[in-house]
Amino acid sequence: MGNVVKVTIAGAGYTLKTEESEKFTLELAKEIDDKIKEIKKANPFISTNQIAVLVALEYGCDCKKAEQNTASLRAEMKNYLEDAAKAQSERDFYKRELDRMKAEAKSRSNQINLFSDENK
User: Phi then psi for 44, rounded to 5 degrees?
Assistant: First the structure.
């Protein structure tokens, strides 16, 4: 479906069709507009087009870094899940081994009791 949202950035109006919420789109447009105003104030002789390119590069860089961080976190999560599965498998093995040893010890204890009853 989508939302139609009207925004103003650097004095120009835009009508956007987006899958994002109106609130999100308006907040993003304000953030970009504020960034453009900030750069324009610090560099009054730079054109709005040049500022727009600088802002786009900054946001693109942030987005690329976020994608790389996401990929890195996914790889780490995969490793943690593999380690957790391995640890669970080892735990299950040792639990079965412990149960086996307890049963063996009980059996030996019963044998000892049996021999001690015969000696009475």
Answer: -65, -15
**DSSP alpha helix (H) spans, the chain:** 22-42, 48-118
Q: What is the pLDDT of residues 45-73, one digit of tens each?
A: 999 999 999 999 999 999 999 999 999 99
Burial code (b: 16+ CB inside 10 Å, e: under 16) for 33-70 equals bebbeebbeeeeeeeeeebbeebeeeeeeeeeeeeeee
Res 108: pLDDT: 83
pLDDT the model gives residue 106: 87
Instruction: Give the Cβ contact number of residue 28 at 10 Å.
Output: 17
- Give the predicted TM-score (pTM) of the model: 0.63
Does the pLDDT at position 99 exceed 80? Answer: yes
Long-range contacts from 42-48, C-beta under 8 angstroms, 24+ separation: 48/10
* Domain locations in the chain as residue ranges: 1-44, 47-120
Beta strand 12-18 with 3-9: parallel, antiparallel or unpaired? Answer: antiparallel
